[in-house]
Every structure is written in structure tokens, then in C-alpha cells.
Design brief:
The complex is a heterodimer of chains A (282) and B (759).
Chain A (H helix, E strand, L loop, with lengths): L2 E2 L4 H10 L4 E3 L5 H8 L6 E3 L9 E3 L5 E5 L4 H5 L1 H6 L1 H9 L3 H6 L2 H7 L7 H6 L3 E6 L2 E6 H4 E3 L2 E2 L6 E8 L3 E8 L10 E8 L4 E7 L6 E2 L1 H10 L10 H14 L10 H19 L2
Parallel strand pairs in A: 1-3, 2-3
Antiparallel strand pairs in A: 4-5, 5-10, 6-7, 6-10, 8-9, 11-12, 12-13, 13-14
Helix pairs in contact in A: 10-11, 11-12
Chain B lengths: L23 H6 L14 E7 L5 E7 L1 H4 L4 E5 L9 E2 L6 E2 L7 E2 L5 E7 L2 H10 L1 E6 L6 H6 L11 E9 L8 E9 L11 E6 L6 E5 L4 H12 L6 E5 L15 H11 L3 E4 L2 H7 L6 E9 L5 E11 L7 H10 L10 E8 L14 H19 L3 H8 L19 H10 L29 E13 L9 E8 L2 E6 L8 H13 L5 E2 L17 H27 L7 E4 L2 E4 L5 E3 H4 L4 E8 L18 E14 L4 E12 L6 H20 L5 E2 L2 E2 L17 E7 L16 H4 L1 H13 L5 E2 L3 H5 L1
Parallel strand pairs in B: 1-14, 10-31, 12-13, 16-17, 20-21, 27-30
Antiparallel strand pairs in B: 1-7, 2-6, 2-8, 3-7, 4-5, 9-17, 10-15, 11-12, 11-14, 15-16, 18-26, 19-20, 19-25, 22-23, 23-24, 26-27, 28-29
Classes of the chains: A alpha+beta (282), B alpha+beta (759).
The complex binds flavin-adenine dinucleotide (FAD).
Flavin-adenine dinucleotide binds next to strand 2, helix 2, helix 6, helix 7 and strand 10 of chain A.
Chain lengths: 282, 759
């Protein structure tokens, strides 16, 4: 089986265009499981490891946006500057697998797999992140909501790959919370990211593992912004947080499976929403 | 030769010290050869075709497609089994392969095996085998088997065993009565070193050598020999490096398949399971439903216990009858009670086969009786500690089987010592959120958390029961100044190899002890299970060393003119007590040849009669657990903060190893309490992977505070009791009781799932 190891983005574009059936390999933490466990047999592989550009991240000089390369591993998002600028992403990154998985697994791989349980995805959804994609026709920017189109489905076209993800640096509070049946290294049964922009008086909440895609609870967000002030210094009534949780839970669309039940997921997502909102005020 | 003396004056590596393990460094550094690392020249890879259906008739098997694939050496099916077509530990009811015309009885049952030049070729060959099934409706509810309404799914019937215990005055009624119906889910042993075997046929095709990760070499050999129609002495079994067992390697899994392929191909063959196949390849802990009713007087003294226990044994017998007996004979737990009516069933269904797992039937019974003790404490209005102390069993008590407790029984001491262990500090508002329920998921603040405390105390039988003579053999050779110990005891990770060296060093006064290969070229050691090897194989090694020592003393008395009756080992010297003359052991053994093989047998036991009466168990060990658990009642998430435990160990032979057993057992019991379950629906395993079969991680593991209760057991050759099983038994109900206390729910089932707590 041919394995290509492009050294830069241009080489990557070329080789992927010439081998449209090739599979991209980043950290391999999803892909190798597919191969070893589910008998997937790729005919050609493209390793992304040596494409330096993909492993970089940068902050716009205005300090308003951060762009993270698809090849940046979770371990790098857990601490340091990225964690300071996008704390919810750091929290999400910390929940991923074990230290070994976080050292290898990447943001691009999480987007490539696009599982409703992908831990970075609710953060990207809540932050309205933009996915920067490159392909034979050039590059395009896709809003996260349009990028993920179903369970393990994204809108990448043939020979397109994720180059980087850009998201705003928000002045306010943000947090990620994930429910699983053990205290670390667990696939989420429900997760949520809440971002409160206290400058704009704006809130967004995105839900993982409670529907076929990441769900933005738009109705609950709108209700909350109408009901209470979210600006810095505002107070939150406990009953409002509770009602917010109830409304968020109504927007979830969970299923029963061997990991949990739809009822529990619906309940848990409401509790997470209520708690995240409360935390954003404390 | 000089010997190293520690600051306490004790030699390193003798009994009572934390001697290091001979396999320790290589295991930590990754150099240890597990059975799945085995390799032979010209070796083929083997793989197994399994039924996707829990119950179906096999109408046709067409293997021609497999042979058409390049690199496939051979395929075996039931038609290729030269000897007995079935195997099994107690009764041989499990087919080597499902035959045409017969039925498969569980999802994952083997149909055929292939050997080929590469694992990938094997997978293609398996896919090319065509099996035609007539799919049948599986029997999955044990109650249907008991009622007799289920279809007979095996010629032996659907009941593995039904046994009652009728004891004492059964008409007595307690003024206080508590009852409950409890359920225990199917737990997996989840060892890390997956099943693997390498079979090497001899050139004439008359016999073979096998390297297997197993718990009992001789029993494997017997079953393999029967199926292959070979005399046992034509098969040499060698222990392949074993990465954990916990009961899952007591039954045959891939042994016969590997041997058949190797004999037919005339080449070495290795089969190694992956994690998913491992879930189908070995037996699990029995899921069980237990109803229990305790009668007590007004003070809370238990006067009678009634119970009905149903163990789902799955498709084949394995050790189900023995598991059932362990369950029902431990109904009373570590408490005084002579009056009982117990009705126990182990039945056959089309669910995955169940058999041995650490705790062997007692885990299920203990979950029920310890849940009951908590209810009883509440009903009487006393504390969990008081109710248990009030009823604590003692040596000399008559149990519900009529057997007299003749082991050291420090039940009250276990409870008191556990109670004396300081409680953890209360949860602080500044706590690291990763250490509270929800862990790295950051789901809660300390203010969301409620803390509960729960107790569990247990009794566990040691060694095999009901008349079984599970003896152990060991051989001690002293030749040219070298001491070599040989045994067939499976080292599965528990540290017997280390213990054997400790015993030999202590008895013989030597520092260097060579361990011979663990194989079938010495007598049986019985199984590494039932908390028995320290007692049984330890006893055998000690006996062999003593026999050798006696000969050595004879030799020394003559050669060095010492008084035979007055010589003894003093450190690494042989000393004449009368004359104080000394000679170092290393000098004394430099020119002699001694070779002693000894067996160790425990006292005989009896079968139970129809009323469940009889001296069926050899000995017992006890332990108390107190669990402190933080619970997020709204999300149903849990963090076990601390387990305090005092365990009746007889005597600590190696403190570090004892700690390891206790901490590991607690983690396994915690797993059963809150996360570990094989989810079976319509006869199919839904979570055959470590993605979905969750084991505790370090963030789930509690702080363990332990006390060893050291009251030497006079019946035990080393004064020590087996310590492998007790740690995992009562910790499960202790955790459940703590959660119940925190949230005020009955929670009759383990594992306790988040939604059991919060919905
Ligand atoms: C033990 C274990 C635990 C895990 N725990 C978690 C967890 O808690 N949370 C979680 O979210 N995930 C978890 N995962 C899944 C996995 O680690 C993540 O999804 C990770 O983000 C995948 O990244 P990767 O770099 O390893 O991707 P790979 O496996 O290399 O690739 C995954 C997919 O993405 C595609 N791909 C990779 N890079 C790109 C790109 N730049 N553009 C387009 N497509 C691309 C690949 O072709 C492939 O289809 C776990 C996995 C394991 C094995």
C-alpha cells in the first residue's frame, strides 16, 4: 500500500488530488481503530505528520481570533496559551482519552471523524468556529454548523482536507462539561459548551452526544437573552438557570444505546446547561 | 557466601519481607514474554470462526472457500476432532466446534478454525467459510428454565444444578424482618494479557508441546488430550507468560483449537485473541438475582435467613454448579445464624457462558447479605457497625451447612480495626474538580456533592470444596550448590514465583533460588484460583524444601560431625545447637545431590446432602470494608473517596504483594459497583470492547487505607490465608451502601448506573 508523506500544504494538495481515494492519517487514534477493529482496508494513505503548517497555531494581532492548525494535538490545547485564550477548548481537550491519546489525537482528526461525541466539537459550535478547508479547487471557509452534517458525516468534498480552525477570543466566561460513566477516559454520554460574551451580553450553548450532530440550543439561548442580562456584573436567579436547563433539554434529541438511555441524556444535558450557566455568573 | 541483612536483622527476600518479584523488572520494562509474544520457526497463525447467533441450528458448513485462498494451510471443524467432541471443567458439555446438525448455543460459539501464513489471511479465510444456520429463538430468561417453560437447549437439560439448604429451626419468625430482591450484572475478568497459545507438534505427529496462558496446566492437558485422543504424556504444556487471569483462564478457550490446527497442519500454530474475541472466548461472572429475607430479634440478632438465588450460567456448564454452591453456602455472610431456608439454581440459557471469577459465587451472595445488613441496621435503629458486631461470626460457630467454623475467624476484629481507620477529610470547596464525581468532565462543584459512608463485611471459602482433592506438587533439587524449585503452579501475576523463592530461602538458608520452567513435567499444582496457591502450592514448596533439608541435615551431621537432632538453619548457616558449630549452607550443599518431590493435600471435605448439609469447605477468610463515596445525586456520578479495610490474612508473607492484592481487588470490586458490566441483549454482547466495557481508571480509584489482621492460621502450612479474593467481595456492597446512604434510594442492582441514582 502506498503511503505518501507530503512536507507542506502544496504537496498535500497535489498528492490528495492525484489520489482521491487516499485516507488522511493524522494521530491515527480513530483511523487505526477502524483498521484494527473494524477491518477497514485503505488502498492509499497520506500521512499528515510532516506537514508543519498544520501543526501551527496563531493569534490575530488584534487579539480577537485564534487559528489552530488541524494537526495540533489535544495535549497542546490543554495547557499554555491556547488554554488561556480558549479555556473551554482546553477543558474539552483534557477530557479526551488518556495522555497517550491526547498526545497523538488532533483537532483535525476530531473533525474528520465528526462523531456527535467528539469533545472539541461542542466548543467549536458554541464559538461559531470557522473551518478552513483546502482542496483541488482552492480553499473555503465553512461555519462549523454547516461542516457537520450528520453522525460521523462532514461536508468535505473529494480531496478536501481541514487546514485549520479559527474561532473568536471571547471576553467573558466559557466552559465545557462532559458526562461519562467514569471519571476520565470515557466517551461522553452528554456534553455541553457554554460561552457567555459579557461584552455583548450574548450566550451560546452547544450540546454533544444528544443528537445526530452537535446541537446549538438556539431557542433556549434566545429565551435566556430575553429573560436576563448576561452582561458583566449582572445577577442570575436560580429559577432562571433551572428553566434554562429545562429548555436546553427540550432541544436535545438523544437516543437509547448501550452507553446510556435517551431519558438520562435528556436529563443530564439540562443539568449541565443549568450548572454551566450558573458557573458563568460565579 | 555472605547474606544481606536488613536493618531489622531480617534477610532480604525471606518470608515476611517485601521480596522483589523475579518477573517484576521485565514486566515493568516491557521485556517480559507474554504468551502472545511466543514465536516458533515456520509458525502459522490461527483464527476462529464464531457464530453470530445465540441459538441456531447449523445446517451446513462449507470450508472450500477458505482453502481456495493462498496461504491457508488448514481448516478444522467438528469433523476433524479425533477424540472427545466436547470439553468442560466439571461436565464435558461444550463442543470443541459446533457440528453440522447440532446447535450453537451462544453468540460467539466456535464453528471452525483456520491456520494460515498471516493473521490477515486468516481473516479472509474465515470470511470465506459459508455456514448455513436455521436461526432459533434464544432462551435468555433463567426463570423460564426454572419454570420448565423454555425450550430444552442442550441434551443435558437447562438446569446445571438445583440445591437447597434447610437448616435448624425453619419455623422460627423474627420480630424484625427485612427483605430485598437484588441483582448483580455480568462482570468480565478483563485481564490485560489476552488469550494466547502456541502449539508445536513433534516431528512424528505423535504428540505436541504447547505454550499456554492458563490457570491450571494439568487440567488443560487432560482436556486437550481427551479431545485429541492422545495420551496425556504425549503432551507437554508449558506456561506462556500470563497477564492476569481472575478466573477467566480456568476453562479451555483456544487450547484445543490451537492443538488441532497444529496437529493437522504439522506445523507450529499460534492463536491469539484480540479484545473483542476475548469477550466471546472466556466465561464471565454469573449475573444473578437474589431474594433474601432476614429475621432478627428486637435487638437485631439474626435468627433466620431465607433466600432464593438464581445464577445464569449461560450456554455451557463450566463451573456453574460449584459457583452456585459457593453462593448459597455463603448466604449468612460472616454472621452467626443456624436457621435457614435457601433455594439455589444455576441454569442454562443462550447467554454467554459464565464460570469462575474472583470471588466465585460469593460476590453475588455478599452483595445481597450486605445490602440486607444495612436494612437490618436501619430497622433495628443501630449503626451499620453495631449490627455487624452484634452478629459477628466466631470460631466454633455452627453454620447453615452444619459445618463448624474451624478457621481463625476475627470478624469482630476486622470490623473494629476498619472502624478505627481515620475518615478522609471532608470535601472542601476548593477541591480539584477532577477529583470529585464527574472527574475530568468538570460536571460538578463541591456544592453539588453529597457524601455517603457504607459498610461491607465478607466471608470467603479458600481452596476447592465438596470432596475435591485439589492438591499441589513441588520439587526441590539441590545439586552442585544450586537450589532449584519446580512446580506447575500458574504464575498469573499474583506473585507465586516470588513466594516460592521466599519459602526456599527461608527454609534452606540460601539466597539464590533458581525456578525451573513451569510446565507439566512435575505433578499438578491445581488451579491458580480459589485463593489457594499460597496455601496449597506454598505448602508443597515448603514440604519439598523441608524434605530436602532433612536429607541435607543427614549429610551435614555425618560430614561435619554435628548432632543430627540438634541442627537447624540459622540465617544462611547450619548450626549445631549443642556445640554451636556452624557451616554455611552454601558450603554444605556444594557437593551434594538431593531431589525431593512432595505433594500437599488439604483435609478432605464432603458433598452437601439434599438439605445442603455437609462439611463442604476447607477454610475461610474474612474482611471488612468501609467505603466513603461522593455522589452527585443530580447526575448520578460517583467518586469513591476512600476504602478502609482490615483483612484477615493469617500472616503477611510479603507486605508489598499483599498490598497489591488488596488494592487491585478493591478496584475490581469498585468496578462491579459502579461501571463494569457486560451488557447482553437478546443473547448478544453489546459492549465487547474497552471503549464500552468500562474499567476504573486512576481517577476512579480510591485511597485505600488497610490494616492486616495477622492471627496465624494453624491449619495453613505457612500460617497465611489466601488473600486474593476477599478484597473484591464486600467492597462492592460497601460502595453501594454508601451511595444508598448519600441519596436515600434502595438501588438493588449493581453496577449502579447514573440513571439509577438520578432518574
Ligand atoms: C482510547 C481512545 C480514547 C478516545 N477518547 C476520546 C474522547 O474522549 N473524546 C473524543 O472526542 N475522542 C476520543 N477518541 C477519538 C480520537 O482520539 C479523536 O477523535 C481524535 O480527535 C482523532 O484525531 P486523530 O488525529 O488521531 O485522527 P485520525 O485517527 O488520524 O483521523 C481520524 C479521521 O479524520 C480524518 N482526518 C484526520 N485529519 C484530517 C484533516 N486534517 N482533514 C480532514 N480529515 C482528517 C482521517 O482521515 C480519519 O478519517 C478516543 C480514541 C481512542 C483510541
Amino acid at each position: 500500500m502506498p503511503v505518501f508523506i507530503p512536507r507542506n500544504v502544496d504537496e498535500l494538495v497535489d498528492v490528495f488530488q492525484n489520489h482521491p481515494s487516499a485516507k488522511l492519517l493524522a494521530g491515527g487514534t480513530d483511523f487505526m481503530v477502524e483498521v484494527n477493529l473494524h477491518g477497514r482496508k485503505p488502498d492509499t494513505m497520506i500521512s499528515l505528520r510532516k506537514v508543519k503548517e498544520l501543526t501551527e497555531w496563531s493569534v490575530r494581532t488584534s487579539q480577537t481570533r485564534i487559528t489552530i492548525g488541524a494537526g495540533v494535538p489535544f495535549a497542546e490545547m490543554e495547557f499554555g496559551e491556547i488554554a488561556r485564550l480558549v479555556p473551554a477548548l482546553a477543558q474539552a481537550a483534557r477530557t479526551v482519552g488518556s495522555p497517550q491519546i491526547r498526545a497523538a489525537g488532533t483537532l483535525g482528526g476530531n473533525l474528520g471523524t465528526c462523531s456527535p461525541a467528539g469533545d472539541s466539537l461542542p466548543v467549536l459550535a458554541a464559538l461559531n468556529a470557522t473551518i478552513h478547508v483546502i482542496g483541488p479547487e482552492g480553499s473555503r471557509d465553512i461555519d462549523f454548523v454547516d461542516f457537520m452534517v450528520g453522525v460521523k458525516k462532514n461536508c468535505l468534498q473529494t480531496s478536501e482536507f481541514v487546514h485549520s480552525v479559527s474561532m473568536p477570543i471571547v471576553d467573558g466566561w466559557q466552559g465545557y462539561a462532559k458526562v461519562g460513566t467514569r471519571n476520565a477516559m470515557v466517551i461522553s454520554t452528554a456534553s455541553a459548551c457554554l460561552v457567555r460574551d459579557s461584552d455583548e451580553g450574548f450566550v451560546s450553548i452547544a450540546l454533544g452526544s444528544v443528537g445526530p450532530t452537535i446541537i446549538r440550543a438556539h431557542n433556549a439561548e434566545a429565551w435566556l437573552m430575553k429573560t436576563t442580562s448576561l452582561r458583566a456584573g449582572a445577577q442570575l436567579e436560580a429559577s432562571v438557570a433551572q428553566e434554562f436547563g429545562r429548555r436546553v433539554s427540550l432541544e436535545s434529541r438523544p437516543i437509547d444505546d448501550h452507553r446510556s438511555t435517551a431519558d438520562y441524556r435528556r436529563h443530564a444535558i439540562g443539568v449541565l446547561a443549568q450548572r454551566l450557566l450558573t458557573r458563568s455568573f460565579s | 557466601m555472605t547474606s544481606t541483612i536488613s536493618s531489622t536483622g531480617q534477610r532480604h527476600g525471606t518470608l515476611g519481607t517485601s521480596a522483589s518479584r523475579p518477573d517484576g523488572v521485565t514486566k515493568v520494562q516491557g521485556g517480559f514474554a507474554f504468551s502472545s509474544d511466543m514465536w516458533a520457526d515456520n509458525m502459522l497463525w490461527g483464527a476462529t470462526l464464531r457464530s453470530p447467533h445465540p441459538y441456531a441450528r447449523v445446517l451446513a458448513i462449507d470450508v472450500s472457500g477458505a482453502y481456495a485462498i493462498d496461504g491457508v494451510a488448514t481448516v478444522v471443524t467438528a469433523a476433524d476432532v479425533p477424540g472427545k467432541l466436547t470439553y468442560g471443567l466439571i461436565v464435558q458439555d461444550q463442543p470443541v466446534f459446533a457440528a453440522i446438525g447440532d446447535t450453537v448455543r451462544y453468540s460467539g460459539e466456535p464453528i471452525a478454525a483456520v491456520a494460515a501464513d498471516h493473521p490477515e489471511t486468516c481473516q479472509r479465510a474465515l470470511a470465506a467459510i459459508k455456514v448455513t444456520y436455521e436461526v432459533l429463538t434464544p432462551v435468555t430468561d433463567p426463570e423460564d428454565c426454572i419454570a420448565g417453560t423454555a425450550a430444552m437447549i442442550h441434551p443435558d437439560g437447562n438446569i446445571f444444578r438445583h440445591q437447597r439448604i434447610i437448616s435448624g429451626d425453619t419455623s422460627i419468625e423474627g420480630v424484625i424482618q427485612v427483605e430485598g430482591e437484588y441483582e448483580i450484572g455480568m462482570q468480565d475478568q478483563a485481564f490485560l494479557g489476552l488469550e494466547s497459545a502456541l502449539a508445536i507438534p513433534d516431528s512424528g505427529g505423535q504428540g505436541l508441546e504447547m505454550y499456554v496462558a492458563t490457570q491450571w496446566l494439568h487440567e488443560d492437558r487432560k482436556q486437550i488430550a481427551d479431545c485429541l485422543n492422545l495420551p496425556e504424556e504425549k503432551i507437554r504444556l508449558v506456561l506462556g507468560g500470563v497477564g492476569g487471569a481472575f478466573g477467566a483462564r480456568e476453562d479451555i478457550s483456544l487450547q484445543v483449537h490451537t492443538a488441532l490446527l497444529a496437529m493437522k497442519a504439522g506445523r507450529p500454530v499460534r492463536i491469539s485473541y484480540g479484545r473483542e474475541e476475548s469477550f466471546y472466548g472466556h466465561v464471565h461472572r454469573h449475573p444473578a438475582k437474589i431474594w433474601m429475607k432476614h429475621h432478627a430479634d428486637a435487638n437485631g440478632k439474626i435468627v433466620k435467613i431465607e433466600s432464593r438465588m438464581v445464577f445464569d450460567g449461560g450456554a455451557y456448564c463450566s463451573t456453574s454448579p460449584a459457583v452456585l454452591i459457593n453462593g448459597i453456602t455463603h448466604t449468612q455472610g460472616p454472621y452467626k445464624c443456624e436457621n435457614a431456608i435457601v433455594d439455589g439454581w444455576a441454569v442454562r440459557t443462550n447467554n454467554p457462558p459464565c464460570g469462575a471469577m474472583r470471588g466465585f459465587g460469593v460476590v453475588q451472595a455478599c452483595f445481597a447479605h450486605e445490602s440486607q445488613m444495612e436494612k437490618l441496621a436501619t430497622a433495628v435503629g443501630v449503626s451499620p457497625v453495631e449490627i455487624r458486631l452484634l452478629n459477628a461470626m466466631e470460631t466454633g460457630d455452627r453454620m447453615i451447612t452444619g459445618q463448624i467454623m474451624d478457621s481463625v475467624a476475627p470478624v469482630a476484629q476486622c470490623i473494629r480495626e476498619t472502624d478505627a481507620i481515620p475518615m478522609p477529610v471532608p470535601l472542601e470547596n476548593s477541591a480539584d474538580l477532577r477529583t470529585i464525581p464527574g472527574g475530568t468532565g468538570l460536571t460538578a462543584q463541591p456544592s453539588n456533592i453529597r457524601r455517603g459512608v457504607g459498610w461491607g463485611v465478607s466471608i470467603k471459602n479458600l481452596m476447592y470444596s465438596e470432596g475435591f482433592d485439589d492438591f499441589s506438587t513441588a520439587r526441590c533439587r539441590i545439586s552442585n550448590g544450586v537450589v532449584t524449585i519446580k512446580f506447575a503452579t500458574s504464575e498469573v501475576g499474583q506473585g507465586f514465583t516470588m513466594l516460592a523463592q521466599q519459602i526456599a530461602r527461608t527454609v534452606l538458608g540460601v539466597d539464590e533460588v533458581i525456578l525451573d520452567t513451569i510446565d507439566t513435567q512435575v505433578g499438578s499444582a491445581g488451579s491458580t484460583s480459589a485463593s489457594r496457591q499460597t496455601w496449597m502450592s506454598g505448602g508443597a514448596v515448603q514440604a519439598a524444601c523441608h524434605a530436602a533439608l532433612a536429607q541435607l541435615f543427614d549429610h551435614v551431621a555425618t560430614k561435619f560431625e554435628m548432632t543430627r537432632s540438634e541442627i537447624e538453619i540459622d540465617g544462611t548457616d547450619i548450626m549445631d545447637r549443642l556445640t554451636q558449630r556452624r557451616v554455611s549452607v552454601s558450603d554444605a550443599i556444594s557437593e551434594i545431590d538431593i531431589d525431593c518431590t512432595e505433594e500437599y493435600h488439604h483435609p478432605p471435605t464432603e458433598d452437601l446432602d439434599k438439605n445442603g448439609q455437609g462439611n463442604c469447605h476447607v477454610a475461610y477468610a474474612f474482611v471488612a470494608h468501609r467505603a466513603v463515596v461522593d455522589v452527585d445525586p443530580e447526575l448520578g456520578l460517583i467518586k469513591v473517596v476512600q476504602i478502609a479495610t482490615a483483612q484477615d490474612v493469617g500472616r503477611v508473607l510479603n507486605p508489598l504483594a499483599a498490598m497489591g492484592q488488596i488494592e487491585g481487588g478493591i478496584a475490581q470490586g469498585l468496578g462491579l459497583a459502579v461501571m463494569e458490566e457486560i451488557i447482553v441483549k437478546d443473547g448478544k454482547v453489546r459492549n465487547p470492547s474497552f471503549t464500552d466495557y468500562l474499567l476504573p481508571t486512576f481517577l476512579d480509584a480510591p485511597a485505600v487505607e488497610m490494616v492486616f489482621i495477622e492471627e496465624h492460621e494453624p491449619k495453613s502450612p505457612l500460617g497465611a490465608k489466601g488473600i486474593g479474593e476477599p478484597p473484591c467481595i464486600s467492597v462492592t456492597p460497601a460502595i453501594a451502601n454508601a451511595i444508598r446512604q448519600a441519596v436515600g434510594r434502595e438501588l438493588p442492582r449493581v453496577p449502579i448506573r447514573p440513571y439509577d441514582i438520578c432518574l
